[in-house]
Write a structure and sequence with these properties.
By secondary structure, the chain is mainly beta. The chain has no helices and 11 strands. It has strands at residues 3-7, 10-12, 18-25, 33-39, 46-51, 57-59, 67-72, 77-82, 91-98, 104-106, 110-114.
Length: 116
């Protein structure tokens, strides 16, 4: 069974940084497009950033210039470096994996709280 395990969330002050990691297992990682999504209380889940198999990236407007998505195929891991965090970035962050056949998988989520 495919597993996506997120880590790196926590409590950070406004302006701070966090690096999220998502370790994948039981998948052929290099054929999957990977993404980060987030869901704040009372809101729908929304795209944060995606990275294709080839390494092309896409960001939500709210993430551009502050967040960076990257992947390490040798480690079957995708990262989200988040800088200049704002209180509105507070959410549960989810890792997503999608293969060329449109099968997709989700991690269990990691909480990010930005507060002073």
């Amino acid at each position: 069974q495919v597993q996506l395990v997120e880590s790196g969330g926590g409590l950070v002050q406004p302006g701070g940084s966090l690096r999220l990691s998502c370790a994948a297992s039981r998948i052929q990682f290099n054929i999957y497009a990977m993404g980060w999504y987030r869901q704040a209380p009372g809101k729908q889940r929304e795209l944060v950033a995606t990275i294709s198999r080839a390494g092309s990236t896409n960001y939500a407007d709210s993430a551009k210039g502050r967040f960076t998505i990257s992947r390490d195929n040798a480690k079957s891991t995708v990262y989200l470096q988040m800088n200049s965090l704002k209180p509105e970035d507070t959410a549960v962050y989810y890792c997503n994996a999608r293969n060329p056949y449109d099968n997709e998988f989700w991690g269990q989520g990691t909480q990010v709280t930005v507060s002073s």
